[in-house]
Design brief:
InterPro entries: SAM-dependent_MTases_sf. By secondary structure, this protein is α/β, with parallel strands linked by helices. It has nine helices and ten strands. Helices cover 35% and strands 21% of the residues.
Amino acid sequence: MDNLFVNKFPIPWSMTRAEKSTLIQLVKEINPEISIEIGTFNGGSLQVLSHYSKKVYAIDITPEYRDARCKELKNVDFLIGDSKKVVPKLIEKINASKEKVEFILIDGDHTTKGVLADITNVLKIIPYLPITIFLHDSFNPNCRKGILSYDYSKNPYVHNVELDYVTGAFNHDGLYREMWGGFGYIKLMPEKRIKPLKVSQYQEKLFKITYYKSIHFYRKCFGFLKPIYKVFKK
C-alpha cells in the first residue's frame, strides 16, 4: 500500500491511489451518521468508513477473508450473506426506524445482474438526509452495464448520477488488458427531484476506446476461440 495511507489505514485494499484519496476525503467531509458497505472482503475500505462514521453496516458473503484487525472496528455491524437477500431486509429496517444513512459503498457482486440488484435494492431507501452512493469498478464493462440498467428517472429522490466520478484503470494490478476501478456516483436528496435527470458518463469516449482494446471485448466476440487469448498476450 502507498505510504500516504498505510499509517492511518493499515489494512490493505484494492483501489487505486486516486480512489483511496477520494474515498478518504469524501467520507471525512460527510462524517456520516450511518454508512453501508456492500462487499467488505478483507476490510480495507471498511476501516475508512468505520473511522469517519458513527455506525457502519458491512455486508459480505465471504467473512473468512476479513482481516483480523476488523475486530477492532467496534462501530461496525457485520451482516453475512448474499447482498440480494441481506440488503432488502436491511433497507426495510432502516426505513422503518428512520435511521439517517449518509454514505453507501457498493462493491459486492461484480456481475451485471449483481450490480443491478444491489442498486435496485439500495435505492429503495428513504433519504432523510442527503445520501452519497459510490459504485466501485464503474470502469469494468459488466459493472458499468449493471449501473446503466437501472431506470433512475423513476426514483424521484435521485438528483445526480455520474459513472465516471473517478476514472478507472487499464491493466490495474497486473490484470492483463482488463478494465477495473473507477467510482460511479449517485446522489439522493430528501426532497423530490423537479428537473429531468440526465445520467452522465464523463469519460464515455475513454471507456469505449479502452473497451475495444481490452480482453473483455475479445472474450465477448471471440470467447469460443480460446487460443486467440495467447495471440493477444504476445
